[in-house]
Structure prediction request, 446 residues.
Amino acid sequence: MTATQNVVLEAPTSLEELWLPFTANKAFKKAPRLLGASHGMYYTSTDGRTILDGCAGLWCVNAGHGREPIVRAIAETAANLDFAPAFQMGHPLSFGLATELAKLLPGDIDHVFFANSGSEAVDSALKIVLAYWRARGQPDRVRFVGRQRAYHGVGFGGISVGGIPYTRAAFAAQLLPQVDHLPHTHGIAENFFSRGQPLQGANLADELETIVAQHGAETIAAVIVEPVAGSTGVLVPPVGYLERLRAICDKHGIILIFDEVITGFGRTGAAFAAQRFDVMPDMMTVAKGLTNGAVPMGAVGVRHEIYETIVEATASGIEFFHGYTYSGHPLASAAGLATLKIYKDEGLFERAAELAPYFEDAVHSLRGLPNVIDIRNLGLVAGVELESRAGKPGARGLDALVNCFNEGLLIRVTGDIVALSPPLIIEKGQIDHLVELLGGVLRDLG
Ligand code: PLP
Prediction:
């Protein structure tokens, strides 16, 4: 199956006016990589080449591209209810999606606040936490704890709790003031080339006790982590690590937020990483796979008690002064409903779990290729870490991306780490092809 049955968009007449995000604009415009159509597991480039999607677009398209029920839901909704105001008004689709999403979310996370992206979901979550502690009569609980090498989007809240130096550096003067960071869990030599969860490193969660001792638990509002850090190169949590974080949060009454923007919707072989690891957060942020990437949408899921506390604290009137013009947009809600139905009808989360061992063997077969210094995986996500060229971090990774694209494979790279996260509909033969293409590129990369 290829994307060729679709109309392939022609290359644009001018590349100049568009300022591309997180992209080396000057280099890109000299040698652009342009996608003109998508279907199933494949893109077609504007010059007509078929590209296997090794990263679900950008960790989004878990059900594969161009799914007819999603396309139809979006088209019908655009014709029937193109827009509905989100403030002091409602429409059936956003309520319906909240109901369906709440069924999938773990434990008693049963209330949903809609945003339009992962970044907005994260910033909304941080505000919900502050509103909660005010409502609980503990307004001094304002400190957030994030983690090194965390990515929580690009809002000021997200970059403050995030732990990537280059996303923070330019804005350092105006980050949220009361934020601490746990150490990341990567780089333990015994963990290299782990299959699934690495064995060493659960003790790194104990650093939270140090932060509590330093500031006092009564000042700490929440801890936010990605259960598997995605954007900084697929960092799988050590066995017991998340359990320990949960226990320390419980001990000190601290809210635990899982940012599941990448790990949600089957990526780890369960609906969410919370179920995959059997560790229940108090709040979750999701986006990407919620609508299969077809319409921008993010959401925050909160435990029953968090919602009740905030809305009951206000006798009448608006309880939470936050929201977006497009919160619960009809097109996004319709896309989300159609997407969740596909996941369920096709058993895609179970499929991801079934395929995981095959995927694991396939990606670990790259061990031993030139410059491959680590491979890690969980569910249908894997990271292949390449040694950086001396004095040129990221150069080898970017070359890998460009060469893969030229050979017909879309990958994601972070620095010198290749991240693989194919749509959950991938067939075994396509896994073989993906690894063969990537292996060929790594062999010749230099
Ligand atoms: N949180 C996590 C864990 C992410 O991986 C991302 C994006 O990759 C975000 C938040 C931000 O999402 P968005 O790019 O939709 O704002």
Notes: Residues 117-119, 122, 151-153, 226, 230-231, 259, 261-262, 287 surround pyridoxal-5'-phosphate (CB under 6 Å). The chain has two domains: 3-63+348-445, 71-345. The chain has 15 helices and 15 strands. The chain has a mean pLDDT of 97.
